Amino acid sequence: MNVLLADTILTMNPAREVVRGGAIVFDENVIEVTDDLEAIEKRKKTARVIDCGRGSIAMPGLINAHTHLEFSGVSTELNYGSFIAWLSSVIEKRETLVKGLSKELIDGVLDEMLRGGTTTIGAVSSYGFDLESLADAKQKTICFNELIGSNPAASEQIFSAFLNRVAKSDEYRSDRFVSAIAIHSPYSVSPALVKKAIALSQSRKTPLSVHFLESKSERKWLESSSGEFKPFFEKVFKLDSSFCNAQEFLSFFGGDGKILFTHCVAANDEELDMIGKIGGAIVHCPVSNRLLGCGLLSLEKLKNREISYLVATDGLSSNYSLDLFGELRSALFMHEGLDLPLLARDLLRSVTDSAAKAMGLNTGRLASGYAADIICFRLSGEVSDDSLLPLQAILRAPSAMDYIFINGESAL
Ligand code: BEZ
Ligand code: FE2
80-111 pLDDT, tens per residue? Predict the structure, then answer.
């Protein structure tokens, strides 16, 4: 048993969000979070005691629900500012991006994410090059094996290659590695394959990840087979019309899944209503959206519909860092119309409790029975006002945590 003493515990448990001068008692799971000093003294007699010191803040480990580790190679060659310009540059530079890739490189990226406080990672895997790193990682990982390929003539090969990657990924399953499925997007996978992938994901009961309405040009292509996507598709994939429109695509999803719709920047009110009905969550990658010229997701529209959102970094091909606290800082400044302390609280929830719920994981909250995934860092002074704690934590969290526990084990 362990007793972690921290000045402040940000539990992310709505029943009691802040505990001052207390302790987290845990083994593999959290046993209790308490400020009962007598009880703590009693526990200390038979436990390992970790005293995090003055100014310490302990909270649940962060969850980065959407990244692409296979795109961790050189990205200075990519084009930014417009989605299609970026996508074309990714396709053109694919060789260079993949050539610079090695297990050591991905391991290093995962280590840095860990030091920054990310204890659970949703990694979209397009090729399977990241499987071993994900399986070896200290973090918990959800490997989203991605179905992608828009050539109708190659439909069967695309699906069987995808199933092979899923089977390979399944071999790495463990209590820390979830083998799951991703569908790239409504424009890059035909409806027939989309439906097969959804059925497969449902039968596996794992979360499903989908890129959806990242840009206005995607919307235009889906609605009317026109706009910037048209010359791109004609040239690169010899396609002259889209497979379906946005709402048809959403109609393929049932209401019983843990579905993560990534981006949704160009989704309209009806589509957001449909996502709400499906019970889906929206993955919000503000830096990526900015770099690719996609605009800013309206968090107010999600709030009105009680759709939860999860801040994530996307991959290094559309970001300069996979540091989740850094991404939260960007989000804080980009959503400048929203109340600052409340936004900060929401953002922190989005990478802990909300993310865990959306993916069906028993983490993201420091409360009895939840996994003991804990991070701890120190600020240079006190934050006496509870309502400003999330804001100060986001602003001042260091790039390396002082303590990290995953399933109760030290991960540093
Ligand atoms: C494809 O592989 O078919 C594809 C990839 C990216 C965008 C569109 C289509
Ligand atoms: Fe992505």
Answer: 999 999 999 999 998 888 888 999 999 999 99
328-341 pLDDT tens trace? 999 999 999 999 99
Give the nearest ligand 1 atom to 188 CA: 9
Q: Is 214 a catalytic residue?
A: yes
Q: What is the per-residue pLDDT for 255?
A: 77
Q: Which long-range contacts (C-beta less than 8 Å, at least 24 apart) are formed by 188-193?
A: 188/148, 188/149, 188/150, 189/147, 189/148, 189/149, 189/150, 189/243, 190/150, 190/152, 190/155, 190/243, 191/243, 191/244, 191/248, 191/249, 191/252, 192/155, 193/147, 193/149, 193/155, 193/158, 193/159
Which ligand 1 atom is nearest residue 150's CA? 3
Does ligand 1 have an atom closer than 6 angstroms to the CB of 237?
yes
Say how many Å lie between the CA of residue 94 and the centre of ligand 2: 15
pTM for the whole thing? 0.98
- Which CATH number is correct for 2-60+364-410, 3.30.360.10, 3.10.20.740, 2.30.40.10, 3.30.450.40? 2.30.40.10
In this prediction, residue 74 carries a pLDDT of: 76
